Amino acid sequence: MRRVLAIFALCLALPGLCQAGVLVSPVLVEAHAVEAGDEIVLSCTELTGRERLLTLSLGLFDQDAEGRVILQEDEHAQALAADIVELPFREFRLLPHENRDITLRVRSADFASAYVVVYVRAAQAAVASRLAVLLMLSTGAAKDDLSLADLHIDGSSLALTFHNRGDRHGTASGMISAYDSAGDLQGEFFVESGRVLPNRQRRTYLALPTQPHSVRFTPLEDLGGQFLVSDALW
């Protein structure tokens, strides 16, 4: 039996979701324990009352040390993405104000984790534009392994670098305990890394209301679920 990984899409008018009069949702799909044959459903809505010709294509993505997404759309990336995700078609039309579901299929689960981009382009737009839907996929055996690699104090600002030694993306979180020169606790503050891809590092910054003499980071257990569909943040 085929599993549908995303059986609904949230059509929220958030910045970055709408280009050339077309709303695409969700913009981020995160799924663990992926199997071949699983389906991912995207929703496309025409907003301006005009018929639209849209095209679909694939690529991969990575991230830099600040956590910014790096899109990869060369021929090699397109070929690798096509081995993982199957598009139902390469182009389609949206009638005025039409809402249409686009069903993607996981072609192969012969990977620990995969980071695929689905590009949606308006073929007849006056200005070239596209939307990038990020698919963060991992299979059942994949695990994240995040730890704090570096911590730097600069006055009341902290820079923390997290490293993921696992083969699946993950998020680290914990509490920063700030101490004065006498060793007395000044306060405790929550910090989260944001998503870190496998074998990557990511820096995050924390502004404190005081200038500590020393700090200690205590990691928290991962409370994340097995599946997330998000129209919000990376």
Characterise the protein shown here.
With 234 residues, the protein is mainly β. The protein folds into two domains: 4-141, Immunoglobulins (Immunoglobulin-like, Sandwich), CATH 2.60.40.10; 146-219, Immunoglobulin-like (Sandwich). The protein is built from one helix and 19 strands. The protein has one helix spanning 75-84; strands spanning 4-6, 18-19, 22-25, 28-31, 39-46, 52-63, 69-72, 85-86, 91-94, 99-106, 113-122, 130-138, 146-154, 157-164, 170-179, 185-196, 200-207, 214-219, 227-230. The strands form four sheets. Strands 4, 6, 7, 9, 11, 12 and 19 form a seven-stranded mixed β-sheet that branches. Mean pLDDT is 86; it is low at 6-16 and 222-234.
